[in-house]
Write a structure and sequence with these properties.
By secondary structure, the protein is of the alpha+beta class. It has 20 helices and 27 strands. It is flat, with a radius of gyration of 30 Å. Bound molecules: 5'-O-[(L-methionyl)-sulphamoyl]adenosine. 5'-O-[(L-methionyl)-sulphamoyl]adenosine binds next to strand 1, helix 1, helix 7 and strand 13.
């Protein structure tokens, strides 16, 4: 038997500087969906993801959190893996750039570049963007309000001088232009290829600084240890180090390289389509077949970012609506390649319209009618004059569907592929209205016609279920259960080459609604309470007390019901430790005992408590079901209640009057 065709796909390795957002989830779900689709088609797939753990930013974050960099990233990596599990992501390997298997090979690659003259040592003087860890030439900098700012992130740059190793990118400029021009599929969407050529290659490719002396948290250059390897050489190499490149065990590398596709957000296309190919070429290796630069998931008109405080995390959405609903939304809402807005409203509307109504109704109506008219037993097909033109149209459309989906998936047009599937879903629902099974059911002489109608529907549902599997891995199981279909052979890609394979006699049983209908207005309130992260400028600790002179009566809030109050969880928390936060003059960091758990909470009351250690042992009131949020590089898990005297601006913490008689963790209400 010939070997299966291979398919190697990667996501960017994400910075574990904070928890992964719905944005990181977007790329990862896309990679997982494509992997599952290729697997369905019989490919031998390999799916790599991971984390990019070195660099100044992580070093700083760890310092702020009072832990070592590795302790810091270990925690985020564990949480990232949990999130991928929750999202039903089936990766084959998760590479961390702090692993020895990676670092050793990065050192080897760096040395090879140096030995063969691709890397040289020089002094660099230029404008440096600390958050992006990038040097920029004067022509690359942008002007903003009279200031020179980073072209990537828009933040101010500072002049900086540093000894460094440089990669002779300029030497490969013409080769790179030729390669891109002669391989039109290499960069997708094609518009991004033009951008690379016109904005970065044609104006002249600069040599790239590939080491730092100022960053200790990195892969040391083994022949000059005051340098560490600058993040992009370290990071990009992951795509081959994970496969064992450069080791004695490079079977995976020999089997899967070159990658079929690197999925990346549009902001890092440049690194993947210029620097990475040049590095590979210098190593004498073939280039990935494609780099796909997808668009951004925006929140409002802005890119999600922690510093802007407009981040959405997938956890609460999945908890309420299930992982398949979110996966479907992410793949359906915007064309892969374009930007799109995430809003809770568009999510809920889509789940209701496409999943609860279109798909959910089709499945439940089909199963319910087989239950009702055929006692839950799949009837047998008969050709006796029962093939009408509407049957033929539906059947032909359904037979073409795998091909239509395949051609969209080959272009990574996930949204279009789903649109094709949903056209058949819609056609099935119309077919029900057209054939009116409830009328056929009243006439015994139409029993076979009714059987054929329901079989056509059930067979379409089988096709649809197989094809949505890569997008929504849990849903097909639930549909097949309703159809009573156990035979794995009828759930394969090959089984879609013929229409009408569903056997008679299956036990059909209408199950629970696949996607319960949502009351959008009500759920919008619930979901925005779950997902919204307050923007930093609205932090309560930053509110200035109103001056005495224009003191107004306190603004009354709208009345609430006891049910509203019931959503709040208040608990008694005993202070185990309390200290000032070095980099803030407002925050105190509390360690709190809640009886069954210990929590860290930051509170903006430092100015009212000059000697925070005096709070140790006190019993305070904690709003304990407030969504945790990141502060000073750590998660703050709740809010301590305090009263504010508007005149003096002093805050006073709330407590109970008999603390010794109440155990920590006791509920307050
Ligand atoms: N560590 C580098 C990548 C190195 S790859 C060799 C990095 N990490 S990152 O954590 O910033 O992740 C960026 C990637 O996350 C984007 O390229 C994109 O794939 C994904 N996204 C993060 N936020 C996103 C959105 N809001 N929208 C879409 N994708 C986003 O860059």
């Amino acid at each position: 038997m010939p070997d299966k065709k291979t398919f190697y796909i990667t996501t960017p390795i994400y910075y574990p500087s904070g928890n992964m957002t719905i944005g990181h989830t977007y790329t990862t779900v896309a990679a997982d969906t494509l992997t599952r689709f290729k697997k369905l088609q019989g490919y031998d797939t390999y799916f790599l993801t991971g984390t990019d753990e070195h660099g100044q930013k992580i070093e700083k974050k760890a310092q702020e959190a009072g832990v070592t960099p590795i302790q810091y990233v270990d925690k985020i990596v564990a949480e990232t893996k949990d999130l991928w599990k929750l999202m039903n992501i089936e990766y084959d390997d998760f590479i961390r750039t702090t692993e020895e298997r990676h670092m050793k090979i990065v050192q080897k690659i760096f040395r090879q570049f140096y030995d063969q003259g691709d890397i040289y040592k020089a002094e660099y003087e230029g404008m440096y963007c600390t958050p992006c860890e990038s040097f920029w030439t004067p022509t690359q900098l942008k002007d903003k309000d009279g200031q020179k700012v980073c072209p990537d992130c828009g933040r101010p740059c500072q002049p900086m001088k540093e000894e460094g190793y440089f990669f002779r990118m300029s030497k490969y400029q013409d080769w790179m232009i030729d390669y891109i021009e002669s391989h039109p599929d290499f960069i997708q969407p094609a518009s991004r290829a033009n951008e690379m050529i016109n904005n970065f290659l044609k104006p002249g490719l600069q040599d790239l600084c590939v080491s730092r002396t100022s960053v200790r948290w990195g892969v040391p250059v083994d022949f000059d240890t005051k340098h560490t390897v600058y993040v992009w050489i370290d990071a990009l190499s992951n795509y081959i180090t994970a496969l064992g490149y450069g080791t004695d065990h490079d079977e995976l590398f020999r089997k899967y390289w070159p990658a079929d596709v690197h999925l990346v957000g549009k902001e890092i296309v440049r690194f993947h389509t210029i620097y990475w190919p040049i590095m590979l070429h210098a190593l004498g290796l073939p280039l990935p077949k494609q780099v796909f630069g997808h668009g951004w998931l925006l929140f409002g008109a802005d890119r999600m970012s922690k510093s802007k405080g407009n981040v959405v995390y997938p956890g609460p959405i999945v908890k309420r609506y299930g992982v398949d609903a979110l996966r479907y939304y992410l793949m359906r809402e915007m064309p892969f390649g374009s930007d799109g807005n995430y809003t809770n409203e568009s999510f809920l509307t889509r789940v209701n319209a496409d999943l609860a109504n279109d798909l959910g109704n089709l499945v439940s109506r089909t199963a319910a009618m087989i239950e009702k008219y055929f006692d839950g037993v799949m009837p047998a097909w008969s050709d006796e004059g029962y093939v009408e033109s509407e049957d033929r149209a539906l059947r032909e459309h359904c037979e073409q569907l795998p091909q239509l989906v395949d051609s969209q998936m080959a272009k990574l047009q996930f949204s279009q592929a789903l649109t094709e599937i949903w056209k058949v879903v819609g056609e099935c629902n119309k077919y029900i209205d057209l054939t009116q099974p409830w009328i056929l059911g009243k006439d015994d002489s139409k029993k076979q016609r009714l059987a054929n109608v329901l079989l056509n529907l059930a067979e379409c549902v089988r096709f649809i279920s197989v094809l949505i599997g890569p997008f929504m891995p849990n849903t097909p199981k639930r549909i097949f259960e309703q159809l009573g279909l156990e035979d794995g052979a009828l759930k394969t890609w090959d089984s879609l080459s013929r229409f009408g394979l569903l056997p008679a006699g299956l036990r059909v049983k209408k199950g629970e609604a696949l996607f319960p209908r949502i009351d959008i207005k009500k759920d919008l309130e619930l979901l925005s309470a779950d997902t919204a992260v307050p923007a930093p400028q609205t932090k309560p600790e930053e509110k200035k007390p109103a001056p005495q002179s224009d003191k107004k009566p306190p603004e009354k809030k709208a009345e609430i019901t006891i049910d509203d109050f019931d959503r709040i969880e208040l608990r008694l928390a005993r202070v185990v430790a309390c200290e000032k936060v070095k980099k803030s003059n407002k925050l105190l960091r509390f360690t709190l005992d809640l009886g069954t758990e210990t929590r860290t909470v930051f509170s903006g009351i430092a100015k009212s408590y000059e000697e925070p250690e005096k709070l140790i042992g006190k019993s305070l009131i904690l709003l304990s079901n407030l969504k945790p949020r990141e502060m000073m590089g750590e998660m703050s898990q709740g809010m301590l209640l305090s009263a504010l005297d508007e005149g003096t601006g002093k805050l006073s913490l709330l407590t109970v009057d008999r603390p010794d008689e109440i155990a920590p963790g006791s509920e307050i209400g």
